[in-house]
Amino acid sequence: MSKLNERVKSENLEVEKFWVYVVLMLVSGFYGAFTYTIRGGVFSNAQTANFVLMAIAFGNKQWAHALYFVIPISAYLFGITISEVIYDPMRKLKILRWETVLIFIEIVVVTILGFLPESAPFQISQIAINFICSMQFNTFRQTREISVSTTFCTNHLKGMGNSIVKFYRDGKSKDKKEITVHFTMILVFVIGAIISTVLCNKYLGRAILITLIPLGVIFLKFLYADLKKERDKFDIVPRGH
């Protein structure tokens, strides 16, 4: 079976369902507020802001502070690389999909971070969350035949703007669907960040443990799909890969 045909037939895979992307976007909003508010003022979900902050520090001749941003940027790059290298080999083993393993890794990382003492260096949380966010970004790429991100909002603003213009110009239901998808992803990201801010102000680092609930739901659904429901579909490649 060609990769093109595999992708065409992959629309019903559990790992591509819209609810999964919505939940992951909610969790990512939580991560972003978590690291920025109580873990050193660093963004974990994407790296553009960190590049800007690094450039500002260099411009102000704050050399040590500028180099500090190399930590989250490098962690993000490493996560992208690992997820890209491991994706196809994991699928071909036909034991568990990489998506399932990744969610389990997130659960382990979140659990460890939740029980770190507040005196622990911020870099531990920054590296860990940048790492898992980058792998998540590179792994979950498309739902409902729409390219999306589960870790930041910029591409959703672009997609929503493009779809609004196309819908009012052509009136196609596909464009209306894309508007809804992009708007929903932005909304849940903001909600996740608000929840994170409120809980972090009250519980500090322990607040991140709340994300174990949505991550646990995703993991159990993925595990059931891999072991039972979609056991015969390992040859199908999720869209975007």
From TrEMBL:
Membrane-crossing segments per the record: 18-36, 66-86, 98-116, 179-198, 204-224
Entry annotated with the keyword Membrane: yes
Highest rank taxon of the organism: Bacteria
Naturally occurring in which organism (per UniProt): Anaerosphaera aminiphila DSM 21120
Keyword annotations from UniProtKB, A to Z: Membrane, Transmembrane, Transmembrane helix
Pfam short name (any one): DUF1275
Protein name as annotated: Uncharacterized membrane protein YoaK, UPF0700 family
